[in-house]
Every structure is written in structure tokens, then in C-alpha cells.
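Hi there, hope your week has been kind to you so far. It would help a lot if you went through both lines with me. No rush at all, and the record is pasted right below:

***
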Amino acid sequence: MRLLKFVIIPLLMHTPLRGQCEGDLSWEYGEKKEEGFSIGQMFSNAFTPQLVIDTKEIRSYVRDARYKELTKRCGDLRAVDAIYIRSLKIAGYSIGRALLLSMMAVLEHQNLHVRIPIVSSIKLPLTLEEDSLFLQRIRHLPGRVYADSPTNGEMDKDKLQHFFASAYIAYFSGDVQRGIIEADRGRKAALDPFYRGFMEAYLGLFLASTDGYENARSVIEPALRFAEDRQITMTAHVLQVSQALVLLGEGELSRGMDQLTLVKQSAGELGAVAGYWAAVNEAIVYARIATGEAKASTGAMIRNPGFVLGRARKASQTALDALVRLSEHLSPDLELLRFTIEFELGKLLIKRKESDAARSHLEKAIAFLQPLGDCKGMRDAQALLAALNR
């Protein structure tokens, strides 16, 4: 069954940033305020690339004593979320740029050693930080990103840079193949099986999105057994979503949709983002059945008579209800799902001949992507909107 692209958005398994753990502090500390005009600042900014300015800001956020204190109070996973959400704000809600800034915030290597003939080797600086600032930032980085992460030493601080790097490459370049290469490198570089399982979760997801179902299954199934045997719930949820996408892609419609529903419920009960992820993919499958974008083979229909006669017949209304609910009640922490939800809803409403409502949702999709400028999603949404306005 061809479902075009599924929602492949590498996300952290996060919970809302606000909570009782904060007490008298807030993760929103230190946000820049409008400053008066300064000749010195004007010349400094004119000759300093914006990426350097933004990188200094997000690293300063991590080095702040309040970040370390909030990490102690709220936990390391919440602290990882805080880096990404602050990066989004610094980047003007450009998702790709925010992922790059997040990677720069957690970069653990200060120098790159390069071997050169004759002169042996040289050190290339990666962070441009003073030693004291670099060490302070590294001390503050969250390291307990797994249930079984070490509780002393450097813990799993080195894993974050690989995660954000693979997410950036897959999202910002639009090149899932490069995301596959980066995730596979991270997996091969992993010394401990827990980190390897984490990277395999995203590698399996990328493979499932490229119709590489056999390769995806060879990665997903052993990694899922490992995660389930050790009760690593968050990793297991991502792998279960990937497994559901493989089942759908291979024409196992009932099993695939049942698994997405199961992940949506179990992850939703824990407040994990995989629940939203599964819900969006479930809604997209029904929407694309309704619009005709999802083409099932005759064999798939014969193998899934219950799905075809039951759920597929109600696909349009099921998708509409789910996408409207997601559009109206999406958590602010999950705004990066906004384009996918609004775009799919716009296409569905065009099919249902509800032009005014479709126009409204396509305009929301375009507005969300505006900071990114020209990209495939923007062009697709603008083309649909132009067709509606003729």
C-alpha cells in the first residue's frame, strides 16, 4: 500500500515544560528583551554571522546556573526539551535552524584532530568557546536520557549531539537518505546497547519512510525486542510506530492501523509524544485513503476485507474528526506538527468540496512554513491554494 510519506519528524520524548517542579524558577529565564540602539552592537552584529550569535545565546542558556538547578528539579529529559524549545524561540520557530542550534548547544567535542601528511596532525576548533566556558556547559548537559543511563561520570551526554545531528539532516535537508546514513553511523559508533537501540529506533523510522521495508524490519524487530525486554518504554513506542508503518506499507492494513491505535493509547496515557505521533500518522492514513492518495493493491484488499468494508468506508469522516481535533487542540510543545496537520486537512477538505475551510487550513500551513522560505511543503501548499482561488 503506497501512502506517500508518513510523518517522519524526529522528536524528543518530552512532556510540557511547565510543572510543579519549577517552583520559584522558570525554564523561560534569560529571554532577550528589546534593547536600545547601540553603535557598537550594530557593528558587532553586522560582522558576526547570525548562526554564531544564536549559538552563543543557546550555549549561554545551558551554562546558566538556573539551567542546572531546573535540571535537578525537573529531570534530564525535561532539560533536553528545554534546549530544543529555547532553540525554537531563538530561531524564530524555524524548525531546521532550531535543530542545528540544539546540536550546537550539546556538542561535546571541543576540537577535531585531523591527520595531515608531513605535519602529522592538527587540531581544528569546533566550539570557539574559552576552555572554562566549554567545561561549564558540558558539566550542565543532561546525561540521564535513558532509564539505564549511568548515574555518574559523563553518563550519556555524548548521545545528544548524534540525535540532534540526525534530526537536523533528515529534516532541514529534506534528504531522508542522509538521515539514514547519519543514524546508521550513530548506531555503529555506539559502545553501549542502550544507545544503539535509541539510534535504531530512528534508523528504522527513516527506512520505513523510503519503502525499504525489508531493511527496516531487520533493524526494527531486534531493537524492539531489546527495548521491550528491558522495559525501555519510550524507545519501544518509536519502534512500534515504525513497525506499524512497515505493516501498512506491505499491505497489512488492519494490523498496521491496530498497532498505531495501540501506540496512540499506551503512549498517550504516559504523556509521551509518540502518542501524538501515532495519532497524526493514523489520521493521515485515513485522509489519504479518502483522497485517493493511498493506493491499495487487489491483494491487500483481499487480505483485509474487514478493514476495506469497515474502517476504509468511513475513512473521510474518521480523518476529518481526527485532524480537526489535532488542529484545534495541539499542544504548544508540538507545534512542529502543525504543517502536516493543516496541509493534510486542507487536502481532505478539498476532496469533500469544502473550499472555504480548505483555504483556511492551507493558509495556516503556509504561515507555519513562512520562516523557512522556499521548500517543497511550501510549494505544494501554495499550489493547492492557487488552484482553489482560480
The radius of gyration is 22 Å.
